[in-house]
Fold this protein.
Amino acid sequence: MSCGLGICTEALRSDGARLFGFAEYLAALALIVVLWTIVEPRYRLRLEVAKIDIRRAAFYVIAAVGVLTLITDLWRAQGWPVIRGSLISPALWQALMAGALLFTFFAWMAVAFLWPPRFSRFNARRFVSVADGIVRKGSPDELVQLAEALGPSAERIVSAAAQDLLPQPGDKDIALNARRLLHTLEDPQFCAAVVKSAPVTLYAIFGAASAHPQAARAMSVFSHNVLSAAISVEGSFLHRENSDLYAGFASRGQQITRRVFGDCDLLDRMDGVFVDFYSYQWRPSELRAYLRAATVVLKNYASRDRPTHSITVNQIFSAVGRATSTVRLLNGSDDGQSPHAESARAILEFIEQVADALGKGGIPVADWNRVDDHDNPINRLAEISCKLIFAASSVTEPMQTSWSIQHNLVWSGVFNAHLRHGNAVMAEVHARVARMIWIQIRKLEYFPNYVGTMLLGSCLNIIGVAGNARRASVFSTRSERALFWLTRRWVVAHFDCLYRYHPDMAVAGFNPTLSYRPRSKCLRKMYEPHAGRPKPEYDTLDVEACTARTSKKNYSDFPKKWGNRKRQLSTIFPTAL
């Protein structure tokens, strides 16, 4: 021991207490490196978005402890002098270094496993940077991990993006970074990953958006891509969550679907979630997925207390209307159970569910009829039904497929009697569909076109050319019977004139069992032979011959005749005129 200037020193004993040395440090460091190597990437992501850069801090602490431990062991081995005193002992010094290393390790473990970091003003910039890097890289595994990591922070991200005040420029502004993060998440690959593997995150994000609708504008593209991914990804929540009794409680309740698409006002704020879909290219499973989301939207829309304009609802009806065109592809097919027929069934179920929701809503039919037809969901359902019937009219051969699609599937599905009873909305839909078809047929008097002739051929295929269509019991709805009665009367009076001037167009909607004989002035329908009928049978309908006077009257005087008959037709279609 030596003293000088009031400070006494003594040599550090090499055989003193040894709690933590360089050898123990290397063993601990090897363990940390192994854990860091084998840990899942999702935990690394949590460390990257922590409020403090835990990785950088851990590196500095571990490096400092390693240097100090090495110097301490060297000092001990050389027996160099140390200041004598009771403030800190060699054992306490070693304990402090070991404690620093242990604290760093547990802090790292707590951030990675126990308390994952959430979006806040302290790490908003880091969240955006990390998310942008992962999205740009496009690794499916990392996208899934990012989707899972965003779940606990969904409320804070959306609420920050919904701030009314304009954010000030700068990376530290939480509102600006929240909007940047939402725009980063618009990537279609990320939306597919979150739909497939992290639907709970979607539940949290859209739940927060319902509470903070001011953020809807920043989520418009994200929501559209989420819907696209949910449609195209097999096994997504839209494919799983259906109303099947045996699908289980979670799927039958449609919890995620109702959370994401159950707020029509929020979707209207986003403006464009259901737009620009090529619905005519969808498979039946994809169409059904879209219709599930659309049905949830329309059920929420029907619960309003008064008729209002909805961009989302109009977009849905437009997309469903385009999807009806797939039925035309059944023409010439012998398989009535093809995917295109399944698409028609899905659309018919959609019409039934929406009409039922509108009927149970608090808005009477009379109030709906006061609004513009474009904003009237009842009229839009009738338009979809009419488009479906028109698409089915293109299926003219073979005979069995034509009858199966036109009558058994589409016509019976649209004019289903049990759907009307007790449902004023469905009765209104039936009346409007009948009126739309009749107007197209009536228009043939002064404007011959293929739409009218295709619908005319479909009606003749279903009604036949014999019997009293107005009193036929097989046609159960009043609008249906009235339409067929008017159609047959029109055929008797005007078909010969239509055929005389436009022969190809007049029979464009006829299937092989229907034919027109201009010499004998009659329509003939053939019934093919079967086990109980060895030879084909024929029914005929005589029509009036076309004269010059009749021709001129038919093709030039339609507006006047329509005005004279409007009162008569109003008794047949009381709510459709």
Q: What stands out?
A: The chain is about 60% helix and 5% strand. The longest helix spans residues 54-78. The first strand starts at residue 2 and ends at 4.
